[in-house]
Amino acid sequence: MPKFDVIIVGAGFAGMYMLHRVRQLGLSAVVIEKGGDVGGTWFWNRYPGARCDVESLSYSYSFSSELQQEWEWSHRYATQPEILRYANHVADRFDLRRDILFNTVAKSAAFDESGNDWEVRAEGGGELRARYLVMATGCLSVPKAPDLPHLDRFKGRILHTADWPDDMDFTGLNVGVIGTGSSGIQSIPIIARPARHLTVFQRTPNYSIPAWNSPLEPQEQKDMKAKYDELRAKSRNSLSGDYAEECVVSILDLTEDQREAEFEKRWRQGGFNYQYAFTDLMTSEAANELAAEFVRRKIRATVRDAKTAERLCPKNHAFGAKRLCVDTDYYETFNRDNVSLVDLGDDPIRDFTADGVRTAHRYVPLDVLVLATGFDAMTGALSKIDIRGRGHATLKACWREGPKAYLGLAVAGFPNLFLITGPGSPSVLANVMVAIEQHVEWISDLLAFAGKNGVTVIEADVEAQENWARQVTEGAARTLYMKADSWYLGANVPGKPRVFMPYADGVSTYGRICSDVAEQGYDGFHLA
Ligand code: NA7
Fold first, then answer.
1. Rounded distance between C-alpha atoms, residue 361 and residue 351, angstroms
2. Residues in Cβ contact with 73 at an 8 Å cutoff, skipping those fewer than 6 apart
3. 3-142+376-527: which CATH number, 3.40.190.290, 3.40.47.10, 3.40.50.300, 3.50.50.60?
4. Which residue's CA is minimally distant from atom 4 of ligand 1?
5. Phi, psi of 122 (to 5 degrees)
6. What is the average per-residue pLDDT within 268-274?
7. How many Cα neighbours within 13 Å face the side chain of 148?
8. 151-241+292-371 belongs to which homologous superfamily?
């Protein structure tokens, strides 16, 4: 059986960087990747309009100065094809592919207590063994199974945004889109253009802020790159892992005019800038409602049909408590003659027929149905692999009441296993590139330390893990994130434990805690 120092699962941005770092340590490594090439989420999510909501200069690796200087982004927010080209460039530049097994699916991983290493079985890759196992499986990589009545009766084409074919042309077709999260909101304006008719089925309206995307002028990019170190440092020292301006005043300390001016300014800047407008948007209900109402007013001012506008206005959850969306022409799209909105709240889906869908009040003929229905987030990919630690205990069983991982990156009872952007880390509440780099660098420092000190077993302490889980829960409880049935809480997947999974106290605080843990000789870990 081939034996390595490190097995990495996933060749998205986390797995690629992990591979690069462990090679620098002189360790042998192999990456197991389900897809046919690198890119992870950007390999699969090829739906029209797929684009990153974080500015490209920020949503990119910072670990190589040469890389960040040489790569030219075309737009403020890059499209999926451009990000995938970037991932491919990184793979070529650092010669990563020679250690990646593509079209290979990790099925099981078991810790062998006699040799203190992991045995991994992979479809398409056989059995592999390594001292360390690093799960770089992504937070949004397992599409949620659709829970729609009699969907199997529908004979038209069914697509999921996260598994998009190359050959889809909507020209002249009747299309239905179910789901109005980021994927729906990005794809709806593009699908609407060639479609004969587009019907959007909305269960929960979301808050969306315009991206105002535009080409990055060469001089602007040059100027940004000249101060890249400063921008990256600012990102790491921020709440969100981004260099966007995070405001330091409470909204409630301002006059109405000042508030309006700040909201308008942030709205004009676009994207997440709006969410960072005031310190208390995610902690004070009154502040949050002011931000929410500003967005509702924008929706009402944009959408001509008053009833449709009202249906598009989010009212049942706090602003930002579900992942904020960033759009191009989303609300404007509902002014088109060939677009209609079905509010599933008062007109629920009854069933599907061979050529359409019946709701409580209408029949909608469809040629194609697009599911933009989201993911089994944060734990989905891990639960698909039969992971067994000490005493053959399964990770699934250990996480039955909700996932617990010390610092979001190691699990008690599962020695030598590491999670990148796992539950309990900033991950999805942050610019994930920064979150990934934090984890990869921290894990590789620990592996270097282990190598130097003859350590062969690294295991999170149960008590440290419990304390950390408590901190994560308490952090979330101080925010309004708890005021929505979000995928952060697992609420979108029936039967999933309702536990707030990401760490809400921010990238900088998290980074400081991780550094302290390392400086204290990896406090909270058993090293043997
Ligand atoms: P999201 O954000 O989970 O959105 C999924 C959407 O699909 C959301 O509007 C859901 O409504 C809706 N949904 C899910 N199941 C159903 C059913 N059965 N019927 C009707 N509507 C349904 O996933 P995305 O792919 O858009 O975005 C995921 C992340 O990717 C995003 O946050 C970014 O980080 C990038 P609900 O709100 O649950 O009522």
1. 12
2. 56, 57, 60, 82, 216, 221
3. 3.50.50.60
4. 181
5. -130, 130
6. 92
7. 27
8. FAD/NAD(P)-binding domain (3.50.50.60)
Q: Torsion over CA of 522, 525, 526 and 528, rounded to 10 degrees?
A: -50
Task: For a ligand 1 pocket test, name from 41, 164, 182 the mutation site with the most ligand atoms within 8 angstroms of its C-beta.
Answer: 182
Compute, in angstroms, the gap from residue 482 CA to the centroid of ligand 1: 17
How far does the centroid of ligand 1 lie from the alpha carbon of residue 484, in Å? 13
Average pLDDT, the chain: 96
pLDDT tens figures, 2-24 = 999 999 999 999 999 999 999 99
Distance, CA 386 to ligand 1 centroid (Å)? 26
Question: Which atom of ligand 1 sits closest to the CA of residue 428?
Answer: 34
The four Cα atoms 35, 41, 42, 43 give a dihedral, to 10 degrees, of 10
Between the two ends of the chain, the Cα-to-Cα distance in Å is 25
Of residues 528, 501, 499, 524, the one with CA closest to residue 513: 524
List pocket residues of ligand 1, CB cut-off 6 Å.
Answer: 140, 147-148, 161, 178-184, 203-204, 323, 344, 372-375, 487, 492
Ligand 1 centroid distance, CA of 378 (Å):
14
Substitution candidate for ligand 1 out of 180, 188, 203 with most atoms within 8 A of CB: 203
Report yes or no: 323 and 491 within 8 Å, Cβ to Cβ.
Answer: no
Pick the closest to residue 203 from 250, 164, 146, 242 (CA basis). Answer: 146
Any idea which residue has 């799960």 for tokens? 135
Residue type, 400: R
Nearest residue (by CA) to ligand 1, atom 20, is: 203
Instruction: Find the mean pLDDT for residues 12-37.
Output: 98
By most ligand atoms within 8 Å of CB, the mutation choice from 492, 493, 498, 501 for ligand 1 is 492
Both structure tokens of 314: 């989010």
Strands 417-419 and 126-135, sheet pairing: parallel
Q: Where are the domains of the chain?
A: 3-142+376-527, 151-241+292-371
Name which residue sits closest to atom 29 of ligand 1, judged by CA. Answer: 182
> pLDDT at residue 248 above 80?
no
Mean pLDDT within 488-498: 96
Residue among 5, 97, 79 nearest 42 (CA): 79
Of ligand 1's listed atoms, the one at least distance from the Cα of 323 is 32
Distances (CA, A) of 422 to 139, 149, 227, 271, 404: 7, 33, 31, 25, 9
Does the CA dihedral 247-252-253-254 come out positive or negative? Answer: positive
pLDDT of res. 145? 76
The pLDDT value recorded for residue 279 is: 83
3 state DSSP class of 176: strand
Tokens of residue 32, six digits: 């197991």
Strand partners, 106: 122
